[in-house]
Structures are given as C-alpha cells and as structure tokens.
Amino acid sequence: LIIGNEGCGKSEAVAALSYLLGSNLNSLCLTPEVESSALIGQYIPNEEKATLGGIVRWHDGVVSEAFRNGYWSLLDNLNQAHAEVLERINPILEAPPHLILTEKGETTPVQGDLHFKIFATMTPSAASSSIGNSELSPALANRFTIMWMEDLNSNIDEGTGELSQLVSRLLDTNCMDQTISLCKSLLNKEARMDSNFRHIIRLLDNAYKLQA
C-alpha cells in the first residue's frame, strides 16, 4: 500500500516497476461507485452464444484475473471504495492467499499463480481533494506492507538533482537544459501552487514524443 499526496507518482512507480520486470499490470481506479464485481468478476451477456451455447458467460474482475494468471494488480485510491467492496479481497490479502468465486457458484478455491502481486494506493483524507476519501480500517491496513511516498522536492535548488536524473533517462542532451528549466518553473511555488510529480511526468512524456 503506497500512501502519498495526489500526483506524487504512486501509480507511475508501480507501472514503471511492472514494465521493467516484464509483469502484466491490471489497474483499476476505485471510486465510491465501484462494486465488488469489478474486482472479482460477474456474469455478463454472452455475445457469442450462437457458437458457445450460453446466454451469459463469466468475466473475471481485475483482481481475480491477476490472481489466476500471475499478473500484478493495482487498486488506485483504495480508500475511496466502500468497506463492503474492500472486504471481498480480504482472503487474497491473507497468508496464504486464496479466493473462492462464490459469485460464480464455485465452492473450491481458485488456483492462484505464485507471481501474483497486489498493490494499492491512497491519498490521506486530509491531503485529498476528493470528497469520497476516508481512512482504511486497521484490519485492512494491517494486511498490507505500507510505504509512504514523498512529493518531488519542491525546493528549486535541492530538486534540480532529482530532475536531472529523470530527464537524463528520457531526453538527449540537446533538450535537457530547456526541459529542466521548464520543470523548475512548474515547481516554483510562487508560479504554480498545485504542480506535482504527475505534471512533471506528463511534461517529460510530451517532450520525449516531440523529440522522437
């Protein structure tokens, strides 16, 4: 469970790590409207019923699909979901992890893959601009290893080293100085109070595409 302010790079860090390690990543942004079926699965109309014979078919949710196939699962904004939705993934967070698809009518556990990993992110309610954010129950929080992520250093002098490391991985030397200067302008609190790591990543991504 990665906790940090909005836009500090929580989801980007997981996505980058999964890419570097060659793991498939199933992501879901949680909101108060998300139901447990998005995590576990549900029956949906079978558009191929003419050939397969059934009116409906089972469709795995992002967590159950990842659990079965050894993918990584990322649940963004974990504390925005209702408690009863989050309770459904409790068995996967236990040791050893297990999952029974009762919604499918099954009584035997799904055979999970050893490479499966589940990540979650949340923004503390005091630091969030979203209305639905709440604190996690201790029972759920204790099932995770918790990591706190800091924002990109907004101190212009101290943050230059971090920016240089980011930019050097993406851009050639001809673009580096100009891009770093622009990033520093974004991080200048007097110029823009709400700039964060997310804005920096988007800027670098666009600079990389223009360079290509």
Automatic annotation (TrEMBL):
Domain ATPase dynein-related AAA: 1-144
GO terms under cellular component: nucleus; preribosome, large subunit precursor
GO molecular function, one term: ATP binding
Keywords: ATP-binding, Nucleotide-binding
Keyword Nucleotide-binding tagged: yes
Alphabetical list of Pfam families matching this protein: AAA_5 (PF07728)
Gene Ontology BP, a term: ribosomal large subunit export from nucleus
Superkingdom: Eukaryota
InterPro entries: ATPase_dyneun-rel_AAA (IPR011704), P-loop_NTPase (IPR027417)
SUPFAM superfamilies: P-loop containing nucleoside triphosphate hydrolases
Membrane-spanning segments: none
Gene3D superfamilies registered for this protein in UniProt: P-loop containing nucleotide triphosphate hydrolases
Stretches assigned to coiled coil: none
Protein known as: ATPase dynein-related AAA domain-containing protein
Species of the source: Vannella robusta
